[in-house]
Amino acid sequence: MTERARAVVWFLVALFGLAAVGLGIVATVVDLDTSAQLATVAGSVGGFLGFALSGYALLRPPAAGSGRNTATCRRRLNPDPVWAVEF
Description:
The chain is an all-alpha fold. The protein has helices spanning 3-29, 32-59, 70-77. α1 runs antiparallel to α2 (32-59). The mean pLDDT is 79.
């Protein structure tokens, strides 16, 4: 994992932690109905962003020079020559 990716992961961990603390504060100070509505909106937005990110990860081309060959990966996952598929 690169330093940039590690920084992004920690930023997201901090962001989601603050969101959880914020929802807890709203639940205790305001009321549960308002915090439930905020949690619903936050969950919907988070789910949509996760869906979009997974779609991007599935459809993007592999990085140049990454050394990832799908046939090689398949052989490693299934080394049995009877079931291995070579393309």
